[in-house]
Amino acid sequence: MSKATYDSTIPVSGSGFSSYNIRNVLNGIAQGDSEPLRPRAQDTPDMTVRIGDASVESYYHQVYNDRSAPLEYSEGNSPEVVAPDSNPRIDVLMISGSTTGTLHWVIGAEGAVPTMPLIPSGTQTPVCAIYCNTTMDRILNYEVKDTDATEGYLYKDLRPKIVRLSDEKLGVYDPGVPWAGDTAYQATEDGLVTGYLACSSTQYAYCDSDNPPVTARQQYNISGTSVNTYFPVCFPVKKNDYWKVTGSPTLFFMPLTS
């Protein structure tokens, strides 16, 4: 089966009902084309790509950058592409943001046989890749790319159909500068606060959305041991929440990364 192109205007009448046209539309859907965030060249091609709405008919909300809410994006244009200097290049268009999408390019490396840049992790989703020629001043749709070999063109549709919403793992221990006791810190990402605390009186770990945090999550040396005794510290922290450990702890922050 060769690549097909979905066309929402077919069939209407006359030749639109030809078996070829209908087969092309159905094959396009079967191969993976669809309306949400659909990348297409402009009607009058230029150095941008037109991207469709993230939701369709106020019913199909199928695009997520994270698990919090569907992505809201109204049809718009990518930033302009700059032609490569010496050799072809492949760029990847990403849409970032938890709920409101922003388009940006990941620029590939120029080469005689260019390769796609790595897809970055985080709260963002790939939309498409374009093949950039040094002579380009327009971006064409893939199906007409051979009409003008000097131009750039839509190279791949990268919209994921099935993707794990979470593939998080523990990152690297961050000792801070160091993290000080009795000091409130705001987490820049989800993670774990770990470490140890030597104390001969009752101490606490606090964590919540207040600055400083007021909700006790752990309590150490409950019985009031009279000698310095080491107690393990380990509690989760949500991104943007604040955390604090009293006393004189030795602490590490371990982020959850994708």
Short note summarizing the structure:
Helices cover 5% and strands 33% of the residues. The chain has 258 residues and is mainly beta. The chain folds into three domains: 1-33, no CATH class; 34-157, no CATH class; 169-257, Sandwich (Jelly Rolls).
Textual characterization of the structure:
- With 258 residues, the chain is mainly β.
- It folds into 3 domains: 1-33, no CATH class; 34-157, no CATH class; 169-257, Jelly Rolls.
- It is 5% helix and 33% strand.
- It contains 1 helix and 16 strands.
- The protein has one helix at residues 19-31; strands at residues 39-41, 49-51, 76-77, 89-96, 102-106, 124-132, 139-140, 152-157, 169-170, 185-186, 191-199, 203-208, 216-220, 229-237, 242-245, 249-257.
- The strands form 4 sheets. Strands 5-4-6-8-7 form a 5-stranded mixed β-sheet, with no helix packed on it. Strands 9-16-11-14 form a 4-stranded antiparallel β-sheet, with no helix packed on it.
- The protein is elongated and about 85 Å long.
- The chain starts with 18 loop residues before the first helix and ends with a strand.
- The model has no long low-confidence stretch (mean pLDDT 86).
Fold blueprint:
Blueprint: H1 19-31, E1 39-41, E2 49-51, E3 76-77, E4 89-96, E5 102-106, E6 124-132, E7 139-140, E8 152-157, E9 169-170, E10 185-186, E11 191-199, E12 203-208, E13 216-220, E14 229-237, E15 242-245, E16 249-257
Parallel strand pairs: 7-8
Antiparallel strand pairs: 1-2, 2-3, 4-5, 4-6, 6-8, 9-16, 10-15, 11-14, 11-16, 12-13, 12-15
